[in-house]
């Protein structure tokens, strides 16, 4: 009573509940003070960390058991055993209570199943597939109509500038001799975030080229804004739609062999995996998955999908992960978690009644929040999608293609006019 009161200091629900449990215990629990209950437990946080000292017991089931011990003043001795050994020992009468991630089942003849204290379910987890923003996003940032209208405006401005330059040259002004393609490059240079000075001296030609530069800067800013917004909100698609779609994706499905869920992938009454799951479930990428401490390393460094329950994964997500992980929201294999009690243990129904009381008082909900939801966030929610080489790969390819094309055009120019370049003087190509 004192331990629980200090442990949950300020939580009136615990104090009130334990007071009622102590009153109720005096008329229902028949064991004397010398009787020791043999409790078997499997060390597996966040379910339970076993100990003969109730103050050192931890975990979701451990907290429930401590409340039962404090309320009933139960004397117990606890043994740390493997999961399957604990189940068989209680079923054979070698133990009284087994604590762990046990599920409600009708396969055990000599075990009394308690009231479920929590509904557990399995979900799919994997390293979040990252959506790469490819180079074609630059083209898709504008609609087809906008691309057409923009090019039409730039082409019109180029003709206007070129015609203005030709008109001024008739009046013997000192305007540079530029061709129509050069005028087009000057008009669209604003969109390339690099204004190209054509060297005009007349105010009319300068106004025209400045207008085209302003339009180019506006389009450049709009394209940058669209690309940045896509990088911020783009969601990565899952490579499958359901558990049944995983075969054929090239991913491995990691499931604990000791889990009852593993039997769902095997033939009935056999340990052989069904044909569709062969070379998919528990491949070489899942080595060491039985130990929950290896889940993070396996999930972040291998092409795998993890099928695990929320209690186990909550312990995985307590710390910041080295990779960004995602959870498939669909629940699979939903079933109640229970406490196994030897069927002929006197007053074994008292444990179920206590669980019902804990549920009515909201204590089970509190413990569920404490052990399964408090730290389920996983990796740092702040994500930064940095620009990588993949994003501009297509643009660089296009750039080098244009460089090669310009060299090809240069070769034609040299052949057509052998001495087109002379001593800082460029001859105008008509």
Automatic annotation (TrEMBL):
Protein name according to UniProt: Uncharacterized protein LOC114328015
Membrane spanning residue stretches: 146-164, 176-195, 207-228, 396-416
Recorded family membership: Belongs to the glutamate-gated ion channel (TC 1.A.10.1) family.
Stretches assigned to the Ionotropic glutamate receptor C-terminal domain: 144-263
Region forming the signal peptide: none
GO biological process terms on file: detection of stimulus involved in sensory perception
Membrane-topology annotation of the record: Multi-pass membrane protein
